[in-house]
């Protein structure tokens, strides 16, 4: 439920679509890559393998609807326009294509799935702006849905069974905000690809409808919602074994509140935090009580630190709103620290 839009999204989207020079190598953008795939699968040779007049006409219409200009509009479509963009291609969603593989074998598959191929996008290619590149450039190091798990990216090596060092690129899953099963034309749209943890993407999200959820690329301030209703003293924290039950407070428009509330329920945020992280919540509250804002200011002054640096030392996360997504539980910790009731 965190916003990951910090003013760089439009620039990153342009790099994703047009390509970018990274470490001295120019990586081709997605517009060219998807256009090439559209030309490949909707070429004369493959169209000839689909002779049914009605079917052939649909494929030809799709080819006309997937010029580089149209593809660019799909890939760079802003969050608020994604649903409408998908609707424009609904007629092609279940359209199949029989095509010839490189070895001459005839295969039938979803034509939009072949053109906007997410699996191929995740496969590392040194000359193309791929899934690893996108995750690395975005730098979203913690799941924006739950703020519990890391979604980091790194390049490493491992030794295979033959004793050979094999290059490995590790990067997070991308949640399709609009599920690709229902919206195949959006499978590679920049604003539809959300770095996320496996729990949120697979166990909660999967192919469930998300049209009424909060979109992580929506810009909102830290105070749009807050964790609340914390135990207010040490005795209630550690006495009697009482269970933690956090609350939520909203300070935003009605539309934003509804979307944030829907996301809270959709991803089971309250349930997970209450049942799985009660001990952590108690420890954070105790730390807030023990290390007050005044103490933090004294710590900063004693060691010539900024307040943000002192906060990071004590709470082991960032204080700045634009960096909350970099470490797990940063949102929870900041809300506890800023709670007027503690």
UniProtKB/TrEMBL annotation:
This is HNH endonuclease. It comes from Flavobacterium beibuense. The lineage of its organism: Bacteria, Pseudomonadati, Bacteroidota, Flavobacteriia, Flavobacteriales.
